[in-house]
Amino acid sequence: MKRWNIFEFIDFPWFPSIFRDPMTDAMYALHRIFRTYRVWTQRIADVLKKTGYRSIIDLGSGSGGPAIILNEKLGSIHSLSISTTLTDLFPNKTSVESVNASNNPRIRYFKRSVDATNVPKEFDGIRTMIGCFHHMNPSLARRILENAFLSRKPICIFEITENSLLALLFGVLLTPIIFVLTPFFLKSKPSIIFILVMPVVAIIGLWDMLMSFPRTYSPEDLRELTNDLKSEDYLWDIGSSRRWLIRMPYLIGMPQK
Ligand SMILES: C[S@@+](CC[C@H](N)C(=O)[O-])C[C@H]1O[C@@H](n2cnc3c(N)ncnc32)[C@H](O)[C@@H]1O
């Protein structure tokens, strides 16, 4: 497997939410700035249309950024009115409160921990994982795919990073821009605590951001993970989409009618 198994701070259960939450907020800013939705909205709309599902269970939501943007774009571009449930192993408390207090009934953030390797049965819908699959080591990654496969649920995994030197260099250039712009994308005004922790977040975030590149599963890695999950009634579509200088891998698992 090409993927490097190195750590990111955000994966440690002890990593304090005072740092974790601004880091997932920075991810939200990144998705808005670089309009990453263009990579996955069409493909997810196709899965919704083919399967007939009208609900999305987003796993590893963090601040909820890409799934919230996806919900908006599915409505505005594809005229699909979808209900989205955001979930995370470590839900971002501020986002849970702000999303659930908002007057958009189509998006809710489930406040208890949800592990993507064992999604509870009551969460019925298309599973999405956007920009977070590389956080799972191969054994967890395999369990996530197996869980979707065995329960015959559609799963759409999209990364915004690529395991290549060129993509990594692009990431080095982007990271400072993202952290400078993040405060402008917050749902509420940045607090004093947020401003005080920002320099530490920028250093830790730089590490995490850069490590995301070599940790990303290539399409070949994704094929290896699904090698023995084969059935006539469940098919995998694996590939990559180019955006800027990055070829962003994706994997779609879909039950066949
Ligand atoms: C980089 S963040 C991505 C968040 C979001 N998808 C985005 O792009 O803004 C990765 C998220 O995966 C979550 N995570 C890690 N392991 C998980 C697991 N086993 N199940 C669910 N979420 C997990 C982390 O808590 C973190 O919020």
Can you tell me about this structure?
- The protein is α/β, with parallel strands linked by helices and 257 residues long.
- Helices cover 46% and strands 16% of the residues.
- It has helices at 17-34, 37-51, 65-78, 93-101, 138-150, 165-181, 192-215, 219-226, and strands at 55-58, 83-86, 107-109, 126-130, 155-158, 234-243, 246-255.
- The chain has a seven-stranded mixed sheet with strand order 3-2-1-4-5-7-6, sandwiched between helices.
- A hairpin with a 2-residue loop joins β6 and β7 (246-255).
- The model has no long low-confidence stretch (mean pLDDT 91).
- Bound molecules: S-adenosylmethionine.
- S-adenosylmethionine binds at residues 10, 24, 27-28, 59-63, 65-66, 88-90, 115-117, 130-132, 135, 140.
Which descriptors apply to this entry?
257 residues; alpha/beta; Rossmann fold; seven-stranded mixed sheet; 8 helices; 46% helix; 16% strand; binds S-adenosylmethionine
